[in-house]
Structures are given as structure tokens and as C-alpha cells.
Amino acid sequence: MLEKQTASMRTSGAFLMLIFMTSCTADDCAWAKKIIVSEQDVVTRPTAEQIVVHNRKVERFCR
What we know:
This protein is mainly alpha-helical. The chain has helices at about 1-20, 45-60.
């Protein structure tokens, strides 16, 4: 019984992922914008590193 539920959950999860992956808009990069930090912002090093990673992903995927 548990095996059937697990298989059903995997199938449902895969179906949901497929729906979200195939939905698109007129602008594929509408979800992504670079994060801009002003001089007045106080940003910790870990946060700055995350911002850099995000901005590089935007550059790579949204040309």
C-alpha cells in the first residue's frame, strides 16, 4: 500500500513540475531582475555573495 502511495506521489510531483516548467510568458525573464544595491545599503558579506550569484544567473539566462 505504501509503495503505491509513494509511486502516486512521485507521479503527481513530476506532473506538477512539468506544468510549472512548461508555463511561459511573452518575456521568459519576467521573473528575473538584477538586484541593485545602493551606497546607503548595509549588506553583509554572505548577502553580497548571494546577490552576485543571483545577478550572474540573470545575466546567463536572460540575454
